[in-house]
């Protein structure tokens, strides 16, 4: 396995998610079909919400593939979808109760059991399912998925007939689990994220919801329905955790919904009637269900809507899909998950031509798998599955949800990467969009504000990352690296992956004070990666960069040169053979020692030949004392296998484990085994079987094979040594047996790996012809430590004979103009050629080298930084058929969003800090300097954000005066008015935890103004317009952002006469009094303008836009200022326990301030 095998101590079942629903199509262009992969999908809220958010006019295909490790999650999802499709439960409350409540009434329980019976009846065979009314819209991706789901449906049916004793045990376990959750999190407010920008005010209401759910098992507050809900919902009982109650203690059904409008309307902005909150959530859920059902209606314009399911570990399923692309084989040897022997076998649907299951996707959502398998595993499995087609709409979403209580989000993300983000982007062809942009339209400050205002002592901080290709305009641009530098970089990355294997280095890295040592110990068992993980990364990079043959040999030679000379990585010696054999097994590299012709000796004496690698199988009796020791202390523990003999010790971390019985069926010259898996797992009676691959030479070259032992052990970590050394011994062995013990150890040959040619051609290292010359691949130059990008360079060999003459003999000077983040226009004389870089660059710091005798031009340019010079900072990308999509501003369906009540008396209290929080301290200083005109601005993005802030504040009326609806941008230098915005109110962009301005834009130009003088005069006199001054350098940026603001809410299609197409540029202009946007959307979707008589004359010329705050990037700069001590102004770590307002740095300062503070504490 490409991840460590983990002892399943405490298992948590996630029948419901813990973050609000999001639109998975938010970065997919309006015209593009969507093939969406959800890894770690959880409940189907995001699918339902995505379908609900589809514009009425949309007819595109929606194809969802849902992968979750726990079949119970998928069994629940399928039941929900089928109940929605059937529409037989006219009482929406039954569907709500059956899916969201842990306790249900008799009617709901009967509905669950009846639906389970129905599902069992129509799924006895896959063919019968496909012929059913569900078969066309609900499908299964792997051979094991339907049988796994059927097992849960059967358990739900059988729940009705449990014996009285078993039912009582279940109810007692359930009650104990609920009580434990309330005890563990007495003040928890997991649903606080559902309140989005009002999260800081939601603690009381969210905690009330949490306690209500875990006390009653329902979302009800009335006594009657609570009393009637006397039955445990069986869909919450059974999961991979086996016997017991495993629902995660932070579960709250209201966490899935968008509840900001309800809290915003509360008189005190703190408490809302629980019934109101529940009804709001139920109303949203009903709307989502109706949207899904309507999309399946034959009368719908929808081309196709399919949801597919795969019960598998995310890494296993991702590797299976990648293997399918390489070998076109449906069968794999990859276990569907840890502790399971069944391998992933893909469905025949993957071979159905144009109607096949998608195996590559333009949207991949990975939930918060980062927290469970590590960010690098997520990137390794996801990057090859992204579909780089003729559309710019492909994106990867990752999330972090778990961080330390005091850990800065900035540090958490960057520490997870072990790498400079620019280098990573060039290697993988993926980069966080906000890193390149320097902003994000998604709020990432509401949680920090909540912690700052109410002093939340939470260990969680939610951070969503959007990854796209850094090339922006040419996804096929693949760079080259100096092979020596790449080898150096990879060895540094290798060291970071496994730096914590040395206990002293681990504690030095953490630098924790003595009181935090316990946390450090527990963290030492959080292990995401093993040597096979790193090898999988190497495999990915080799294929993407097309490094084969001698090129790859140089990279690996440099890697091993550094490894041989590294005296600090002492623990690496016991793991080296694990790394080497994985390199061999993946066909990436063969160590010289592995090329030896091995003699037939010892256990290999009767074999026909001795293979380079063998698979060692260790049978661990269920009665082994080591297993009993681990069961007695149910913790989450990483496991490894050891091979020891004499002075030799080697650790192997890519271990497969499952319960079952091994039978030797081969011959002495061809050993083989059969394995009968015990599907009852921990509840069965079969032994535990562990296996791993190792190099044969370790067994051959050892003088005494009889002295070699094989062990299943705990990974040696500080935590494991402290807790288990006394029971398992200093080696932490769970079980061991001699190599020659045929009852417990089997050794099988491993076939030599297939070394396949590259699966697709690449332009890496090749030349692309142009009007001036052929361009060699862009080369990445790293710094002297091979850690950061120093520059990018490209060589253009002249091929145009006229240019050769002008350049070589007549000395024509080449020039460069940057027109887009990744586009440079090279000009020699009057001939121009576009150069497309693999990462956004800053030509203001670039240079040209002219080789007039050799007739080539070399350009050297640094990559851009998040706060550097910005060229075209709001790109709109174009695919084939004039399909457009904004690159760094997500799409919204304005008509599906809920309005912000601008008449609310408490609007200022939450909206003002929310939109104000989009500025970092650095940006506030820049804006202040600009307003004082003390110096020229160095960051036009800060000015754009300031203008947006002014517009949103005035459009909401929160900063004095009445609500303003008309805004005119006025250039400070010329005093000219260039653009008018007509604002139709604010709406909640709930899935981004922010607000959005619903409006219309009218770019002014002379020809238009001459015909609209009268209407314009009335607007000025009676429309109460607000003039907003824009400063030097800001106008061209507004010309760039307008097309993006239009595209993000577009519900119409571009025509063949679109100016973007005919002019081959977006925006059309950067000049004053000129229109930067095409005419395709003029007068469309402008019904809101026709409600205001003063706006009607302009409606046919206006285009709808969506304007939202642009927040700073929390992992790039600090967004929330630290609260200060009321007494000494040091960092205020403590909060008054009564008012939750006053801050102090210490108990001493709090005591000193009490005589003054006690007079105002109750008022606060």
Give a short overview.
33% of the residues lie in helices and 19% in strands. The chain is of the alpha+beta class.
* Termini separation: 56 Å
Please bin the fraction of helical residues: 25-40%
Count of alpha and pi helical runs: 37
The gross shape turns out to be: globular
Mean pLDDT: 89
* Biggest sheet strand line-up: 5-7-3-2-10-11-13-12
Low-confidence stretches: 759-765
- The value of Rg in angstroms is 31 Å
Number of strands: 41
Biggest sheet layout: 8 strands, mixed
Broad structural category? alpha+beta
Strand content: 15-25%
Features:
single chain; 1164 residues; alpha+beta; 8-stranded mixed sheet; 7-stranded mixed sheet; 41 strands; 33% helix
Topology:
Layout: E1 5-7, E2 34-39, H1 45-52, E3 62-68, H2 71-86, H3 92-100, E4 103-104, H4 106-122, H5 126-131, E5 138-140, H6 145-158, H7 164-184, H8 203-216, H9 223-228, E6 231-232, H10 260-264, H11 274-296, E7 305-311, H12 314-327, E8 331-335, E9 343-345, E10 363-365, H13 370-373, H14 375-382, E11 395-402, H15 409-417, H16 421-428, E12 431-432, H17 433-437, H18 446-454, E13 460-468, E14 480-481, H19 483-497, H20 503-510, H21 517-523, H22 531-545, H23 550-564, H24 572-585, E15 613-620, H25 625-632, E16 637-645, E17 648-652, E18 656-664, E19 673-677, E20 688-695, H26 697-700, E21 709-714, H27 718-728, E22 733-738, E23 745-750, E24 767-768, E25 773-776, E26 779-782, E27 789-798, H28 801-809, E28 815-820, E29 823-828, E30 831-836, E31 847-851, E32 856-861, E33 876-878, E34 884-886, H29 907-916, H30 921-932, H31 940-956, E35 966-971, E36 977-989, E37 994-1003, H32 1006-1009, H33 1013-1022, E38 1026-1030, H34 1034-1047, H35 1059-1063, H36 1096-1099, E39 1103-1107, E40 1134-1135, E41 1143-1144, H37 1147-1157
Helix pairs in contact: 1-11, 2-6, 3-4, 4-6, 12-14, 19-23, 22-24, 29-31
């Amino acid at each position: 396995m490409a991840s460590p095998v983990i002892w399943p101590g405490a298992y948590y079942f996630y029948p419901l998610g813990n973050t609000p629903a999001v639109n998975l199509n938010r970065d997919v262009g309006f015209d593009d079909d969507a093939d969406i992969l959800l890894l770690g999908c959880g409940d189907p809220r995001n699918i339902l919400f995505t379908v609900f958010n589809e514009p009425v006019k949309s007819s595109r295909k929606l194809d969802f593939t849902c992968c979750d490790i726990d079949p119970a999650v998928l069994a629940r999802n399928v039941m929900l979808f089928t109940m929605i499709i059937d529409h037989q439960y006219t009482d929406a409350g039954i569907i709500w109760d059956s899916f969201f409540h842990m306790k249900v009434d008799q009617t709901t329980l009967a509905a669950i059991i009846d639906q389970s019976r129905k599902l069992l009846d129509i799924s006895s065979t896959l063919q019968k399912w496909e012929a059913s009314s569900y078969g066309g819209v609900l499908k299964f991706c792997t051979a094991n998925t339907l049988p796994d789901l059927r097992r849960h449906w059967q358990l739900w049916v059988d729940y009705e007939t449990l014996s009285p004793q078993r039912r009582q045990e279940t109810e007692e376990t359930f009650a104990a689990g609920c009580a434990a959750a309330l005890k563990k999190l007495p003040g928890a407010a997991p649903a606080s994220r559902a309140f989005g920008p009002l999260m800081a005010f939601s603690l009381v209401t969210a905690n009330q919801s949490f306690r209500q759910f875990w006390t009653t098992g329902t979302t009800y507050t009335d006594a009657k329905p609570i009393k009637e809900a006397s039955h445990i919902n069986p869909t919450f009982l059974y999961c991979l955790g086996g016997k017991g109650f495993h629902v995660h203690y932070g579960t709250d059904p209201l966490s899935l919904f968008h509840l900001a409008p309800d809290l915003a309307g509360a008189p005190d902005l703190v408490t809302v009637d629980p019934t109101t909150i529940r009804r709001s959530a139920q109303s949203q859920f009903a709307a989502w269900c109706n949207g899904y059902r309507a999309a399946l209606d034959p009368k719908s314009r929808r081309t196709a809507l399919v949801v597919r399911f795969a019960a598998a570990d995310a890494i296993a399923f991702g590797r299976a899909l990648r293997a399918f692309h390489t070998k076109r084989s449906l069968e794999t040897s990859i276990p569907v998950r840890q502790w399971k022997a069944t391998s992933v076998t893909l469905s025949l649907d993957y071979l159905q031509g144009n109607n096949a299951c998608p195996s590559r996707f333009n949207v991949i959502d990975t939930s918060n798998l980062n927290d469970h398998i590590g960010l690098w595993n997520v990137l390794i499995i996801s990057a090859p599955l992204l579909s780089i087609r003729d559309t710019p709409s492909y994106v990867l979403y990752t999330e972090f949800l778990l961080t330390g209580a005091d850990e800065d989000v900035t540090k958490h993300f960057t520490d997870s990467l072990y790498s400079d983000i620019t280098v990573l982007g060039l290697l993988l062809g993926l980069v966080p969009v906000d890193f390149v942009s320097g902003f994000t339209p998604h709020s990432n400050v509401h949680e920090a504000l909540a912690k700052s205002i109410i002093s939340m002592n939470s260990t969680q901080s939610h951070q969503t990352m959007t990854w796209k290709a850094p090339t922006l305009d040419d996804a096929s641009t693949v760079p080259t690296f100096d092979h020596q530098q790449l080898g150096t970089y990879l060895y540094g990355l290798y060291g970071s992956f496994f730096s914590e294997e040395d206990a002293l280095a681990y504690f030095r890295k953490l630098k924790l004070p003595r009181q935090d040592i316990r946390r450090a110990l527990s963290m030492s068992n959080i292990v995401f990666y093993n040597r096979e993980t790193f090898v999988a990364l190497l495999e990915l990079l080799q294929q993407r960069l097309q490094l084969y043959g001698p090129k790859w040999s140089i990279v690996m030679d440099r890697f091993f040169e550094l490894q041989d000379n590294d005296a600090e990585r002492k623990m690496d010696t016991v793991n080296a053979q694990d790394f080497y054999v994985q390199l061999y097994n993946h066909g990436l590299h063969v160590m010289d020692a592995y090329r030896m012709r091995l003699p037939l000796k010892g256990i290999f004496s009767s074999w026909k030949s001795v293979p380079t690698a063998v698979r060692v199988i260790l049978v661990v009796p269920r009665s082994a004392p080591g297993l009993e020791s681990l069961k007695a202390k149910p913790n989450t523990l990483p496991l490894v296998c050891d091979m020891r003999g004499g002075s030799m010790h080697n650790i192997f971390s890519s271990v497969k484990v499952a319960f079952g019985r091994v039978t030797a069926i081969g011959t002495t010259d061809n050993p083989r085994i059969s394995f009968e898996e015990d599907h009852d797992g921990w509840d069965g009676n079969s032994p535990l079987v562990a296996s791993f691959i190792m190099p044969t030479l370790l067994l051959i070259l050892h003088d005494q094979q009889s002295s070699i032992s094989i062990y299943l052990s705990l990974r040696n970590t500080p935590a494991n040594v402290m807790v288990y050394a006394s029971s398992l011994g200093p080696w932490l062995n769970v079980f061991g047996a001699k190599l020659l013990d045929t009852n417990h150890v089997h050794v099988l040959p491993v076939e030599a790996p297939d070394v396949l040619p590259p699966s697709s051609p690449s332009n890496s290292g090749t030349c692309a012809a142009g009007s001036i010359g052929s361009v060699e691949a862009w080369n990445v130059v790293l710094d002297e430590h091979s850690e950061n990008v120093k520059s990018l360079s490209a060589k253009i060999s002249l091929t145009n004979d006229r240019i050769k003459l002008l350049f070589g003999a007549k000395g024509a000077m080449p020039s460069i103009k940057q027109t887009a983040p990744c586009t440079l226009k090279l000009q020699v004389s009057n001939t121009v050629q576009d150069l497309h870089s693999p990462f956004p660059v800053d030509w203001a710091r670039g240079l040209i080298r002219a080789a007039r005798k050799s007739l080539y031009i070399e350009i050297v340019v640094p990559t851009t930084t998040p706060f550097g010079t910005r060229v075209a900072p709001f790109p709109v990308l174009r695919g084939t058929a004039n399909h457009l999509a904004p690159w760094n501003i997500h799409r919204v369906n304005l008509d599906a969003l809920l309005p912000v009540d601008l008449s609310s008396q408490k609007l200022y209290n939450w909206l003002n800090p929310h939109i104000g929080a989009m500025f970092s301290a650095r940006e506030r200083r820049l804006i202040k300097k600009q307003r004082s005109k003390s110096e020229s601005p160095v960051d036009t993005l800060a000015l754009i954000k300031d203008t947006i802030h002014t517009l949103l504040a005035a459009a909401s009326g929160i900063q004095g005066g009445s609500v303003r609806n008309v805004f005119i941008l006025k250039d400070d230098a010329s005093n000219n008015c260039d653009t008018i915005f007509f604002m139709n109110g604010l709406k909640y962009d709930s899935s981004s935890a922010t607000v959005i301005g619903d409006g219309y834009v009218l770019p002014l130009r002379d020809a238009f103004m001459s015909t609209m003088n009268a209407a314009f005069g009335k607007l000025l006199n009676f429309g109460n317009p607000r003039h907003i001054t824009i400063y030097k350098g800001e106008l061209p940026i507004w010309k760039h952002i307008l097309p993006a603001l239009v595209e993000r809410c577009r519900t119409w299609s571009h025509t063949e006469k679109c100016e973007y197409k005919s002019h081959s540029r977006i925006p059309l202009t950067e000049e004053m009094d000129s229109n930067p946007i095409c005419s395709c959307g003029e007068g469309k979707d402008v019904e809101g303008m026709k409600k205001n008589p003063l706006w009607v004359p302009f409606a046919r010329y206006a285009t709808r836009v969506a304007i939202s705050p642009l927040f700073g990037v929390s992992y790039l700069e600090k967004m929330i200022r630290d609260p200060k001590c009321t007494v000494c102004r040091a960092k205020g770590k403590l909060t008054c326990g009564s008012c939750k307002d006053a801050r102090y740095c210490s108990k001493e300062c709090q005591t000193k301030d009490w005589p003054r503070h006690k007079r105002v504490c109750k008022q606060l």
